[in-house]
Every structure is written in C-alpha cells, then in structure tokens.
Specification:
Structural class: alpha/beta
Shape: globular
CATH architecture: 3-Layer(aba) Sandwich
Number of strands: 7
CATH topology: Glycerol-3-phosphate (1)-acyltransferase
Order of helices and strands: HEEHEHEHEHEHEH
Number of helices: 7
Largest sheet: 7 strands, mixed
CATH class: Alpha Beta
CATH superfamily: Glycerol-3-phosphate (1)-acyltransferase
Helix content: 25-40%
Strand content: 15-25%
Strand order of the largest sheet: 1-7-6-2-5-3-4
C-alpha cells in the first residue's frame, strides 16, 4: 500500500536526519512485542519525540495526538494516516473506543502518559488515559524513556541543534484480571497509570 511505503520512507528519512544531527542510540528494542496490540508509553520532552519513536519502532504505530495538529494544512493529511485526535481539555469516549479498537486489532498505540510536553525536562503529573486503555484493552504496555530530544529541539527553537538522542525500551508490563474490591474504575485507571509512569521514571537510571 502507498501509505505503508510512505511510512517506511519517512522512517528512513527521520533516522537519517537524526543520525547526521548527532546520532540515535536505541536500547531494549527487543522488548517490543512483534505481534498483537501493544501500548508504547514514553516521557515527552520535545516536539520531535513522536517522529523519533515512529522512526525507531520495529512496527508501524498510531499516535495519540492533540487535535490541533490535525488543523495544520500541510501536516493534517499525515496526521490522519498515523494518529488519533485527542481533545486535551476533555477526552471524548469515541477517542478511547477507537484506540481500544485498534489495540484489539493488534496495532501499536504510542502515547505520552503526562498528556503534554514538559518544557523543563522534568516529569509531569500522569493522566489516567494510559491506565484506561490498558484496562479496557488488556494490552501490554512497554515503558520508554527518551533523552536528548530536548537538546536537539529545545523549547521555542526553530531548527534542530546537534545532540545525541537515546531511547530506552523496557520489558512489556502485562496487567491481567484487573479487579480490586471496592475500587471504582477511575481509581483503577489512576493506579495503573501511576505504575506505568513509575516504570518510565525508573528507566532514567539505566
């Protein structure tokens, strides 16, 4: 298909650009399941994090992205092919249903549990969206930690700066039979999300 060809071509182009810009080191790539639905959950410190992950993942991915990106003329077509729009003010049930549907079909969903980019590089408070997707889809989640992209494209920068980037993928976490007595679904989602974020934080030490 044309879309698959363009996706692979874009992967190669992004990897080449980042390679000549300082290089990309990928650790733990073997931890990503090659079949079945899986969630990639990463920290978010730069606007180039999504294309970076798309370029280094061994499988085609769909991203959870803010809906404003779908309104940018040149970018909108590509966003429609590779992402699900998210209203950061109030996530719509249809958004969650679409992500769950894709996971159950065996696709890869990439998201940032903090919900937005950190302008300081520090971790932000986690949202419960990743916990909700895990609970509703019964899909494994692969924590990922990104470093260097905030140096390659700092806040308010218009051009890439030379920097070495590292991406670390942890082993997948499987949440099965998620049942807690007297726990509301919202609390379960929050607990799972916090556990995933803790796993991402732990990768900073590797």
């Amino acid at each position: 298909m044309l879309i698959d060809f363009l996706y692979k071509l874009t992967q190669i182009l992004i990897r080449f650009i980042l390679w000549i810009n300082g290089g990309v080191v990928v650790k733990g790539k073997e931890n990503i399941p090659l079949e079945g639905g899986v969630i990639i959950a990463a920290n978010h410190i730069s606007y180039i994090d999504p294309p970076l992950l798309g370029a280094v993942l061994p499988r085609r991915a769909t991203f959870m992205a803010r809906k404003g990106l779908f309104e940018i003329p040149i970018l909108s077509w590509g966003m429609r092919q590779t992402a699900i729009p998210v209203d950061r003010q109030k996530t719509q049930p249809s958004t969650i249903k679409e992500a769950v549907r894709r996971l159950k079909k065996g696709e890869v969903i990439v998201l940032f549990p903090e919900g937005r980019r950190s302008e300081t590089g520090d971790f932000l408070e986690v949202k419960r969206g990743v916990g909700m997707l895990i609970s509703l889809s019964n899909s494994p989640v692969v924590p990922a930690f990104i470093t260097g992209t905030d140096m390659a494209l700092p806040v308010n920068a218009k051009w890439l700066k030379r920097a070495k980037i590292t991406v670390v993928f942890d082993k997948p976490i499987y949440y099965t039979s998620i049942h807690k007595i007297n726990y509301s679904p919202h609390l379960i989602y929050e607990d799972i999300s916090k556990e995933v974020m803790a796993a991402i934080r732990a990768l900073k030490k590797t």
